[in-house]
């Protein structure tokens, strides 16, 4: 009897925590709405308020989930409850293991390494061109729409003009379509057994949606070419995150190219004439770009650790991360009444629906092209294609939106991308030398 009473107390505690966070979010949101006129002079810092509101929304999901993990999933409750729906759901979310049975195909039979069908050179060239065009079209269009939505005014037939400000809604629409496409792929294509506890995806899901949010918000304070070059320079925070958090070791050439990339980024920032004279705006842009790179670096490193520990496939990872991303962002948007506000914006500017649909399709199809390219041609080929894409994105943005870059800025761009290609070449060359020495050692034995 005491155990049942304890479980009831735990559930009440979870509901209480959920209610407190939800109530706090509504109070803060109503206060900021009523104080809108007072906050307008410090609009450059309003992203901090939005970030706090978003975090409270995410906490509405994460805190009850943590309490379930802490007090329920390893308690005697699961042992007594047997094969009920709730115990199974809790077990799949927090325990994992061979009985997970989600996102996989029990009858899956792995193929042997090297079983890829042989292709002629012309067939490989056509397939590579298909991947190249698919990635370029998806992400160049995505970048163009991203800058358009966040920086350009929408105008309707009545002559009304308005900017769209809700970055989190764009993150949500991107994730919901990516989740749908990856889930459909998993239903059609057989997958190996999925043993990863689902809750572990929440870490990289949270960092992923927050990094995307920072990316959209940064466009309000810095130019798109600046953001693209910052993304190209994220090798540096990825290395720092890997070294400090995940104890990853790097070769000497990686440190040299990282230093050259940082120098090139500095030259570009000094040579860009797009930066505003407002110091607050500049600081906000730098903080948001830094937040994007740090969070994105954690996402990639954490996903890599899950790949190594549990062996999930890329599409399983895509589906799981986007599932939690949809849950977190939808909860936050609901608490802030953002769905109603977006619907009101759509009724005034119907063309916004087209932009949202296109940017979601480009984002989701781009992710699928990423996995397909890596599977067929390897990570090095993929990195080269995406590096070319970043160069083209800067060129396209400068042509369409008339961004001006000085000679110092051009030198910085060339130094950054030259360092990236040097990094790719050195890494490939070093791997070839190591493989050759390993083969020679094997031959001698």
From TrEMBL:
GO cellular component, one term: endoplasmic reticulum membrane
Name used for this protein in its record: Adenosine 3'-phospho 5'-phosphosulfate transporter 1
Entry GO MF terms: 3'-phosphoadenosine 5'-phosphosulfate transmembrane transporter activity
The organism of origin for this protein: Fopius arisanus
Domain of life: Eukaryota
Family, similarity comment: Belongs to the nucleotide-sugar transporter family. SLC35B subfamily.
InterPro entries: EmrE-like, SCL35B1-4/HUT1
Family annotation (SUPFAM superfamilies): Multidrug resistance efflux transporter EmrE
A Pfam family the protein falls into: UAA
Localization terms from the record: Membrane
Residue spans crossing the bilayer: 7-27, 47-69, 125-145, 169-188, 252-273, 279-298, 310-331, 351-372, 379-402, 408-426
UniProt topology in membrane: Multi-pass membrane protein
């Amino acid at each position: 009897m005491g155990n049942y009473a304890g479980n009831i107390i735990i559930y009440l505690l979870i509901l209480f925590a959920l209610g407190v966070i939800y109530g706090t979010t509504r109070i803060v949101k109503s206060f900021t709405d009523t104080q809108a006129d007072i906050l307008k002079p410090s609009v450059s810092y309003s992203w901090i308020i939005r970030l706090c509101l978003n975090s409270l929304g995410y906490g509405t999901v994460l805190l009850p989930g943590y309490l379930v993990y802490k007090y329920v999933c390893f308690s005697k409750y699961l042992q007594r409850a047997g094969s009920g729906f709730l115990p199974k759901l809790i077990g799949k979310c927090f325990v994992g293991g061979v009985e997970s049975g989600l996102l996989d195909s029990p009858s899956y039979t792995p193929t042997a390494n090297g079983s890829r069908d042989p292709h002629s050179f012309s067939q490989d060239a056509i397939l590579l061109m298909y991947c190249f065009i698919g990635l370029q079209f998806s992400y160049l269009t995505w970048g163009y729409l991203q800058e358009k939505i966040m920086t350009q005014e929408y105008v309707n037939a009545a002559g009304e003009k308005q900017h769209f400000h809700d970055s989190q809604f764009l993150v949500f629409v991107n994730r919901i379509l990516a989740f749908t496409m990856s889930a459909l792929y998993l239903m059609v294509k057989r997958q190996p057994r999925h043993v990863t506890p689902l809750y572990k995806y929440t870490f990289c899901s949270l960092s992923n949606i927050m990094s995307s949010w920072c990316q959209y918000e940064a466009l309000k304070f810095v130019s798109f070419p600046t953001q693209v070059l910052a993304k190209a320079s994220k090798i540096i925070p990825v290395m720092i995150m890997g070294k400090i958090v995940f104890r990853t070791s790097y070769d000497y050439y990686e440190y040299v190219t990282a230093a050259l990339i940082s120098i090139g980024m500095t030259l570009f920032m000094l040579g860009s004439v797009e930066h505003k004279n407002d110091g607050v705006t500049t600081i906000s842009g730098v903080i948001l770009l830094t937040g994007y790179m740090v969070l994105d670096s954690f996402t990639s490193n954490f996903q890599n650790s899950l790949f190594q520990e549990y062996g999930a496939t890329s599409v399983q990872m895509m589906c799981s991360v986007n599932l939690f991303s949809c849950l977190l962002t939808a909860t936050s948007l609901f608490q802030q009444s953002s769905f109603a506000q977006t619907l009101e914006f759509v009724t005034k500017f119907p063309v916004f629906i087209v932009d949202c649909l296109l940017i979601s399709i480009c984002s989701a199809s781009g992710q699928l092209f990423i996995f397909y390219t890596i599977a067929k041609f390897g990570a090095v080929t993929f990195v080269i294609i995406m590096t070319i894409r970043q160069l083209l994105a800067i060129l396209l943005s400068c042509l369409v939106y008339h961004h001006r870059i000085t000679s110092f800025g051009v030198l910085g761009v060339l130094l950054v991308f030259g360092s990236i290609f040097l990094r790719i070449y050195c890494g490939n060359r070093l791997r070839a030398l190591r493989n050759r020495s390993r083969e020679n050692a094997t031959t001698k034995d």
